[in-house]
Amino acid sequence: MISRSLLRQLPARAAAGAFVLHSGLGKRAADQETAERLHGWAASTYPVLRKIDAKRFTALLAAGEMATGAALLLPFVPAAVAGLALTGFAGALLGLYAKTPGMRREGSIWPTEQGITLAKDVWMLGIGLSLVLDDVTRTDR
Predict the structure, then answer these.
(1) How far is 50 from 131, CA to CA, in rounded Å?
(2) Which residues 6+ apart lie within 8 Å of 21 measured at CB?
(3) Hey, CA dihedral for 93, 95, 100, 102, is it positive or negative?
């Protein structure tokens, strides 16, 4: 029997999980040029990533996305765990949005045309936080 909380979470978990899993699957076979582009962008925001080879970074990114997507899609993974994974992933993406020049309008949190692709990832942050809050405030245990 499906619990009411899982049923409540199902649309958000399925939508975000399928999206993130698909994104990770698409990065598994990234060519060198794609890996270098992804790595360069991430390393410009998170300098610690400069120590990692571009292909290895992309493989780790793909694995992290696939694991996050799977955690969201698998109903036996607690919502708090899946939500924390999604929140961390979305937070990193929003860090790129906040720190990459040209993504936001001058003096504003609102995106430029170039920033919309990252700014829209705020929905993943909202879903992740909602899953965590829903799980920790459950009363039907």
Answers:
(1) 32
(2) 65, 66, 68, 69, 70, 72, 73
(3) positive
The whole-angstrom separation of Cα 44 and Cα 126 is 25
Residue with tokens 């029997």: 1
Contact between residue 111 and residue 103 where contact means Cβ atoms under 8 Å apart? yes
pLDDT value, residue 21: 97
Select from 115, 18, 28 the least CA-distant residue to 70. 18
Q: Which domain holds residue 45?
A: 4-136
**Has residue 67 been placed in a domain?**
yes
Task: Share the mean pLDDT of the chain.
Answer: 92
Q: What is the total count of domains within the chain?
A: 1
